[in-house]
Amino acid sequence: MTSLGNYTTDSTNGHSNILRNEKCDAYLLIHLETALGEGFRTFLYFLGLAYCFIGLSAITARFFRSMESVVKHSRTVETIDPLTNTKIVKNEKVWNYTIADITLLAFGTSFPQISLATIDAIRNIGKLYAGGLGPGTLVGSAAFDLFPIHAVCVVVPKAGELKKISDIGVWLVELFWSFWAYIWLYIILEVWTPNVVTLWESILTVLQFGLLLIHAYAQDKRWPYLSLPLERAERPEEWVPAEVVKYRPLDKVHEPHSEVSQVGEEENSGIVDIFSIHSGEGTGHFYRNLAGEDVTESSTPNSGNIIPEESDILSIWKHQFVDALMLESTESRKLNNIYLRVARIFWQSLLLPWKLLFAFVPPYQIAHGWIAFICSLIFISGIAYVVTKITDLISCVTGINPYVIAFTALASGTSWPDLVASKIAADRQLTADSAIANITCSNSVNIYIGIGVPWLIDTLYNYIAYNKPLRIDNAEGLSFSLLVFFSTSVACIGVLVFRRLTIGAELGGPRVWAWVTCIFFMLLWLIFVVLSSLRVSGII
Transmembrane segments in this chain: where (predicted)? Predict the structure, then answer.
């Protein structure tokens, strides 16, 4: 593909127009693309970008299943009762929920943005100016996380249902580091070394992610001197109510008209419950929505740390391909509306290439889900790479400022896993902890890892090769976006605090007030997008 370096950035003085008129000779697949009209090319590239986002939503399903398997892993611990001197055997979860929220959930759902920013940085190795897609996408993603995702989560609970944060202390710690991340970014760009990022600033940015982990864990465990003296509200141990649904053994998965759920049928549902779990009894494996139960803690006698037989694993893997080729699920066959059935078949046809590709991801029953987790992230990185190429072409053909595309289309599309994760958490969990923690932690991860690591790559190379720092193109526009984001985020958090003080919860409540809050959050997001786009384009 022809280099796009001359098109992705067009200013070193901090200003650029929304539209430019250079002829774009770059192409994605074949050179004949350049012979097409600019309007038609733009339509095709936006269509390709949308299809990549569909693929991103498809791989999100497998990613969440694998992540859930990782988090649910338990280990056997033996202790001696000091009174009776008898051995006590119990199962403890390997992962602390707070750490899992920050690392697996927040890092995993932010991986599309992190991949895009890292790829953008690798492509710019050897250049004195950093690329604009990465930072722009991550700041835009932070705004999408905070405003639209909060807006969705507020209206997810049923009418009158209240869901509040049970551990205010942990949330305040996560919120502090989230706000500090953007203050720190502003200090780098405008105070310490204006328009320049040094190697040491990049290192400090990455190291602060470790400080966030330590501080959040200290607050969760209530370590003296390192935690806030706030009591944790009473909460169920597993946070999610048990909900058992129908199941079927794997040896019957090929019965096409069964009335019960199939293993792997979640791929057809479009949305995955990340708090579900696979369990086993006897010789067969079946699916249950148990959310809070680990296989090592089941009361079933033979349900300890279940390691499926090799034949079972192969059967599950085979069924992933069978499921990927199914254009009509059992549920859709029951629909009386022929138009709705046709629409679903059409949608499944669009998903088929992605589902068939992602069927190569190993079943998450292997190695507690780690292999599937890593493979899912690799596929996400691949999609992110294609997205960067298509975005460059859109900027090249239309002349739209890359920051504007990053704030809008890229930020919204790559934040889809964040939206799904928080929506599911708000719907299934008894509290609002994980739904809101995913938002605040994702914003922290976006800066400390998503911007810190790419900048570390470029600054380290420039330091070794040229002994010069990394310059930020249009740093003034990016700094202005940070100020707008900080101002609007204060309003957003203020509304959440007001809801907690008045109706007693951050999410849910009376339907009218929930929708009022939702609309207000969406207005804040529009304010951020419009003002930031106008600023980076040099209009204001």
Answer: 43-64, 168-187, 199-218, 342-361, 367-386, 393-413, 478-501, 513-534
